[in-house]
Automatic annotation (TrEMBL):
It comes from Romanomermis culicivorax (Nematode worm). Belongs to the GMC oxidoreductase family. Pfam families: GMC_oxred_C (PF05199), GMC_oxred_N (PF00732). InterPro entries: FAD/NAD-bd_sf (IPR036188), GMC_OxRdtase (IPR012132), GMC_OxRdtase_N (IPR000172), GMC_OxRtase_C (IPR007867). One of its GO terms (molecular function) is flavin adenine dinucleotide binding. It comes from the Eukaryota. FAD binds at residues 127, 265. This is Glucose-methanol-choline oxidoreductase N-terminal domain-containing protein.
Length: 619
């Protein structure tokens, strides 16, 4: 018994120390906190709407010359007010935090019977840095075929050869790979590092190889290889590489850059008269600050929307741009008829399988246990080491379903994680109580793996629309309207078959010979709505659970698609809104078709190229 006293004392000292170090970390910031301008300019050269992944890049690049003034507006608060926002392993915690905004879709017609009210939930970043503060930090450019498809749609300047230099400009590869060459950036602001191998990860990798899948070596995914690899992450020295961290915060002291958080842009402003070419001329923006006051800022050169694929079309509709009939239904004065604005919503529908495994050598220490969390905070802040320095993603894989034999690019992505909080059945998947109870094991064990299956090129597309709210605070203008998001998952029956093929690939790998030493057990009970009339775990059963249990991946794009024809696109290849002068869009909403990757890095590429396009116009 006497031996236990010093042990207890040491534990108390250890915990107190961890709390102190956590508090110090909360206060520490190498670039200082955001200082609200004491007085805003009446006019700026550029106004950027949205300080998410793209907006932070734009604000940094456009303010590089001190003669150009830039105002960037963001609805969310500062990310660093949550002390763990930069810790890679805390992705799950962040998705459940005040930095995340949960938006429900409209009722789904073709899927999601297992979701509450048959609606899916979009977990969005309401914070400086946007979704890049919450995401899983997986680095991928997409497949070259993605961008060749853009160019084939008459989008001159957007082939893979055209965009590759902007990936290179943005990234700093900390990895030596067999394919290493000038194709990978070494001097960019986004550092890319390799995930730490684990025993379970190595076993799954070997299991995939035993079934004929290979380990892709090229991060560009250009060789058509299907298989798992240890992921590349946007992490540097144990710190998340969001664009607010890498692009915006280092330049906050620029006198020509004003950053205003906790503000809502209510509309884009236009001149009453059109220019000599018959185009509307953008004059600035109207926004409501957190103090409730309405402000008007003028743009001498351009307004750039970078609010994301869900918010950018909504702001444009508020401003009178969009499909004429839809705006008239909502009693919005039509300034410019853009028939497809808000259409073509692209996403990667996602379904999860859970496995229990023995001898799991990885646990997500950010999600299990208060004392685990404190202990690892100590190692993180004092030694710069420990499990908090890594992403929750253990393996990343791209696979071909075989349903499109003419294409080399993958149509399925599989991610492996031991952090079930990032796919929580209720908070993230929005599953109803009955189905969630069938998955009550999730979160109650430290020996569970989640296999996340996402479809990369679904044929079904959705929409974003605007709707007038009957009851709203008349003094709070941004509450007058709301957006209605409809992903329209599985409108095309082929999408369900592709998704089921992805689930089957995951099952085959997990149940192969190399995995037997981990004794994996699929934690899948006969599901309500699928168990009647369908044999358990057949292909038809997998189609059923995919249709009932899918949810968004947070890779939305396409709602302001790029093209040359104003009848089927919203912006031209220089990202200028059709029929409008002085207004561009520079975020994932302009993607004319989806990319074979997590969308964060392609969005950074898009913003880098957009900044150059604006600088060229300025010359």
């Amino acid at each position: 018994m006497p031996r236990e006293v010093p042990l207890l004392r040491n534990e108390v000292i250890f915990v107190v120390g961890a709390i102190i170090f956590s508090y110090c970390a909360f206060l520490y910031n190498p670039h200082g906190t955001l200082k609200v301008p004491t007085q805003l300019n009446r006019t700026y050269d550029y106004i950027v709407v949205g300080a998410g992944t793209a907006g932070c890049v734009l604000a940094s690049r456009l303010s590089e010359h001190n003669s150009k003034s830039v105002l960037i507006l963001e609805s969310g608060d500062e990310e660093q007010k949550l002390y763990y926002s930069h810790i890679p392993a805390s992705a799950g915690r962040l998705m459940h935090s005040k930095l995340a905004w949960r938006q429900r879709s409209v009722v789904q017609k073709h899927c999601c019977d297992a979701s509450v009210d048959q609606q899916v939930v979009y977990v969005r970043g309401n914070v400086l840095g946007g979704g890049g503060v919450l995401d899983l930090m997986v680095y991928d450019r997409g497949h070259p075929e993605d961008y060749e498809q853009w160019a084939a749609m008459d989008n001159v300047g957007w082939s893979y050869e055209d965009v590759a230099r902007y990936f290179v400009k943005a990234e700093s590869f900390d990895i030596k790979t067999p394919a290493d060459s000038d194709s990978y950036g070494q001097k960019g602001l986004i550092h890319v590092s390799e995930g730490q191998p684990t025993l379970i990860g190595k076993a799954i990798l070997e299991a995939a190889k035993s079934l004929g899948y290979k380990e892709p070596q090229d991060p560009r995914g250009g060789n058509g290889v299907s298989g798992f690899r240890f992921p590349r992450h946007m992490i540097h020295n144990g710190v998340r590489q969001s664009t607010v961290k890498t692009y915006l915060r280092p330049v906050l002291k620029r006198k020509n850059l004003h950053v205003v958080a906790e503000t809502h842009v209510t509309k884009i402003d236009f001149d009453k008269k059109r220019d000599r070419d018959g185009r509307l001329r953008t004059t600035g923006v109207t926004f409501q600050w957190k103090n409730g006051r309405i402000y008007h800022a003028l743009a001498a050169r351009e307004v750039i929307l970078a609010a994301g694929a869900l918010s950018t079309p909504y702001i444009l509709m508020q401003s009178g741009l969009g499909e004429k009939a839809h705006l008239q239904e909502q009693n919005i004065e039509v300034k410019e008829d853009l028939p497809v604005l808000g259409q073509n919503l692209i996403d990667h529908p996602t379904t999860v399988l859970f496995y229990s495994v023995e001898n799991l050598d990885y646990r997500n220490h950010a999600s299990h246990g208060f004392f685990d969390w404190l202990k690892n905070l100590y190692f993180y802040y004092v030694h710069g080491s420990g499990p908090l320095t890594t992403s929750p993603i253990l393996l990343s894989g791209f696979f071909r379903s075989g349903f499109d034999p003419d294409s080399e690019r993958p149509d399925l992505q599989l991610l492996v994680t031991a952090d079930t909080s990032i796919v929580d059945p209720k908070i993230i998947q929005n599953l109803n109580d009955e189905v969630a109870e069938e998955m009550e094991f999730v979160g109650n064990s430290r020996n569970i793996l989640a296999i996340i299956v996402s479809q990369l090129h679904a044929k079904s597309t959705g929409s974003v629309k605007i709707k007038h709210q009957q009851q709203h605070n008349e003094h709070d203008h941004h509450q007058k309207w709301t957006s209605e998001v409809d992903p329209n998952f599985y409108d095309d029956d082929n999408d369900v078959k592709v998704q089921a093929r992805g689930l089957r690939i995951a099952i085959n790998i997990m149940e192969s010979e190399p995995m037997k030493k981990f004794n994996p057990k699929l934690l899948e009970k006969p599901m309500t709505g699928c168990k009647q009339g369908l044999k358990f775990m057949t292909d038809q059963y997998l189609e059923c659970i995919a249709r009932k249990r899918s949810f968004p991946s947070r890779h939305q794009s396409g709602t302001c698609r790029m093209g040359v024809d104003a009848q089927i696109s919203v912006v031209d290849p220089k990202l200028r809104v059709h029929g409008i002068s002085g207004l561009r869009i520079a975020d994932a909403s302009v993607f004319p078709s989806d990319v074979s990757a997590n969308s964060n890095m392609p969005t950074i590429m898009m913003a880098e190229k957009a900044a150059d396009l604006m600088k060229e116009t300025d010359q």
